[in-house]
Amino acid sequence: QVQLQQSGAELAKPGASVKMSCKASGYTFTSYWMHWVKQRPGQGLEWIGYINPSTGYTEYNQKFKDKATLTADKSSSTAYMQLSSLTSEDSAVYYCARIRAYYYAMDYWGQGPSVTVSS
Amino acid sequence: DIQMTQSPSSLSASLGERVSLTCRASQEISGYLSWLQQKPDGTIKRLIYAASTLDSGVPKRFSGSRSGSDYSLTISSLESEDFADYYCLQYASYPLTFGAGTKLELK
Question: Is B61 helix (H, G, I), strand (E, B) or coil?
């Protein structure tokens, strides 16, 4: 069965970086794009961007272009998102979710670990 | 960017009641709309895609429909496990955008 297993909760200091992972199983990793979504406490969902693990192509929401970096390791079927120059605004839950291609909807989601930025 | 206006933001309803949520797209999205359910533990599950196609394993009391630029999710008879947050998602164009969510609570 399809599973997206995300890494655990993170506590980071302002100005630092964090790198979280999303390990895919139950399907061919390179056949689906991996998307990332942010949810601040008590707020709605916000699309960050996606990576095509097959080609390494990435596309970002302009809002996160200088904040997030998406990568993928085909050998371990794992997608990564690094968040840099952390501020309190980055404290949120971050989900990975897969999509087949353009004009397809996200079907499976990771469990969404939290990132807390605090000194 | 396409704005998705979701209503209501919250809804109190009783077991067995029929409820409907709506999302209105600011631009044409041609039916590229999905409905998501988020449980209190944060777990997100897709219920519907392509505006009205039910995901495998999703109870048939859930349905989706479209009328022009308005997209609706209807739950025909609420069960206890349906009390959660619901979001619409448009995937017609990037950036992907979500509705602000509806909190469905037990009355």
Answer: coil
Q: Is the peptide bond before B95 cis (omega within 30 degrees of 0)?
A: yes
Structure-token match 């390179």, residue found = A30
pLDDT tens-digit profile of B38-61? 999 999 999 999 999 999 999 999
* Cα–Cα distance for residue pair B85/B105, rounded to 1 Å: 9
What does the alpha-carbon distance between residue A100 and residue A105 come to, in Å, rounded to a whole number? 8
How far apart (Å, rounded) are the C-alpha atoms in residues B107 and B98? 26
> Which site among B33, B52, B86, B96 would you substitute to test the A interface, given the most A Cβ atoms closer than 10 Å to its Cβ?
B96
- Nearest-CA neighbor of B97 among B40, B48, B24? B24
Q: What is the pLDDT of residues A83-110, one digit of tens each?
A: 999 999 999 999 999 999 888 999 999 9
Q: Please name which of A29, A10, A4 lies closest in space to residue A92, comparing C-alpha atoms.
A: A10
Give A76 to chain B, closest Cα distance, Å.
24
Interface with B, mutate which of A45, A95, A102, A108 (most B CBs under 10 A): A45
Q: Is A44 left (phi over 0), alpha (psi -120 to 50) or beta?
A: beta
What tens digit of pLDDT does each residue of B77-96 get? 999 999 999 999 999 999 99
